[in-house]
Amino acid sequence: MRKPRDFDAELIALQDKARDLKSRKVQQLGELVIATGADMFSAEELAGALIVLTETKDAGKREAWAKRGAAFFQRRARRTSSATERDAGGTQAQPGGAQPPSGGSRPA
To answer: Domain range for residue 86?
Structure first.
Protein backbone atom coordinates (compact mmCIF):
# COMPACT_ATOMS: atom_id res chain seq x y z
CA MET A 1 0.00 0.00 0.00
CA ARG A 2 1.22 3.49 -0.88
CA LYS A 3 2.26 5.93 1.79
CA PRO A 4 -0.03 8.98 1.79
CA ARG A 5 1.59 12.28 0.80
CA ASP A 6 2.03 14.90 3.47
CA PHE A 7 0.86 17.94 1.53
CA ASP A 8 1.32 20.26 4.50
CA ALA A 9 4.98 19.28 4.90
CA GLU A 10 5.56 19.65 1.16
CA LEU A 11 3.93 23.09 1.18
CA ILE A 12 6.07 24.21 4.12
CA ALA A 13 9.21 22.95 2.36
CA LEU A 14 8.27 24.85 -0.80
CA GLN A 15 7.59 28.02 1.19
CA ASP A 16 10.99 27.68 2.89
CA LYS A 17 12.67 27.24 -0.47
CA ALA A 18 10.85 30.29 -1.91
CA ARG A 19 11.90 32.37 1.11
CA ASP A 20 15.53 31.26 0.69
CA LEU A 21 15.47 32.11 -3.03
CA LYS A 22 14.00 35.55 -2.32
CA SER A 23 16.64 36.23 0.34
CA ARG A 24 19.40 35.20 -2.06
CA LYS A 25 17.96 37.45 -4.78
CA VAL A 26 17.85 40.43 -2.42
CA GLN A 27 21.43 39.75 -1.30
CA GLN A 28 22.64 39.48 -4.90
CA LEU A 29 20.89 42.74 -5.83
CA GLY A 30 22.62 44.43 -2.91
CA GLU A 31 25.97 43.02 -4.02
CA LEU A 32 25.31 44.30 -7.52
CA VAL A 33 24.52 47.79 -6.24
CA ILE A 34 27.80 47.82 -4.31
CA ALA A 35 29.84 46.31 -7.16
CA THR A 36 28.63 48.95 -9.62
CA GLY A 37 29.31 51.79 -7.20
CA ALA A 38 25.63 52.69 -7.07
CA ASP A 39 25.66 52.50 -3.28
CA MET A 40 26.75 56.15 -3.25
CA PHE A 41 23.22 57.13 -4.36
CA SER A 42 20.31 57.51 -1.98
CA ALA A 43 17.54 54.93 -1.94
CA GLU A 44 15.22 57.49 -3.53
CA GLU A 45 17.64 58.13 -6.41
CA LEU A 46 18.09 54.41 -7.01
CA ALA A 47 14.34 53.82 -6.91
CA GLY A 48 13.75 56.65 -9.38
CA ALA A 49 16.40 55.32 -11.76
CA LEU A 50 14.95 51.81 -11.60
CA ILE A 51 11.46 53.15 -12.26
CA VAL A 52 12.75 54.92 -15.37
CA LEU A 53 14.39 51.66 -16.48
CA THR A 54 11.17 49.69 -16.09
CA GLU A 55 9.14 52.34 -17.93
CA THR A 56 11.54 52.50 -20.89
CA LYS A 57 10.13 50.75 -23.95
CA ASP A 58 12.87 51.82 -26.41
CA ALA A 59 14.48 48.55 -27.52
CA GLY A 60 17.64 50.35 -28.64
CA LYS A 61 18.25 51.82 -25.20
CA ARG A 62 17.54 48.52 -23.50
CA GLU A 63 19.96 46.73 -25.84
CA ALA A 64 22.67 49.33 -25.16
CA TRP A 65 22.14 48.92 -21.39
CA ALA A 66 22.34 45.15 -21.73
CA LYS A 67 25.63 45.43 -23.64
CA ARG A 68 27.09 47.72 -20.97
CA GLY A 69 25.99 45.30 -18.28
CA ALA A 70 27.54 42.35 -20.08
CA ALA A 71 30.78 44.29 -20.51
CA PHE A 72 30.75 45.12 -16.79
CA PHE A 73 30.47 41.45 -15.84
CA GLN A 74 33.15 40.43 -18.36
CA ARG A 75 35.57 43.00 -16.89
CA ARG A 76 34.84 41.74 -13.39
CA ALA A 77 35.31 38.13 -14.48
CA ARG A 78 38.69 38.94 -16.06
CA ARG A 79 39.76 40.94 -13.01
CA THR A 80 38.70 38.11 -10.69
CA SER A 81 40.44 35.58 -12.92
CA SER A 82 43.71 37.53 -13.00
CA ALA A 83 43.61 37.98 -9.21
CA THR A 84 43.04 34.25 -8.83
CA GLU A 85 46.00 33.53 -11.09
CA ARG A 86 48.24 35.78 -8.97
CA ASP A 87 47.05 34.14 -5.76
CA ALA A 88 47.58 30.65 -7.17
CA GLY A 89 51.12 31.39 -8.32
CA GLY A 90 50.23 31.92 -11.98
CA THR A 91 48.19 28.78 -12.57
CA GLN A 92 45.21 29.11 -14.89
CA ALA A 93 41.78 29.69 -13.37
CA GLN A 94 38.95 27.44 -14.51
CA PRO A 95 36.86 28.95 -17.32
CA GLY A 96 33.48 30.18 -16.22
CA GLY A 97 34.57 30.33 -12.59
CA ALA A 98 33.36 33.88 -12.01
CA GLN A 99 29.62 34.29 -12.04
CA PRO A 100 27.72 37.60 -12.12
CA PRO A 101 26.19 38.45 -8.76
CA SER A 102 22.80 39.06 -10.28
CA GLY A 103 22.30 35.43 -11.03
CA GLY A 104 20.45 36.20 -14.25
CA SER A 105 20.98 37.59 -17.69
CA ARG A 106 17.73 39.52 -17.98
CA PRO A 107 18.30 42.89 -19.69
CA ALA A 108 17.59 45.92 -17.53
So the answer is: 56-99
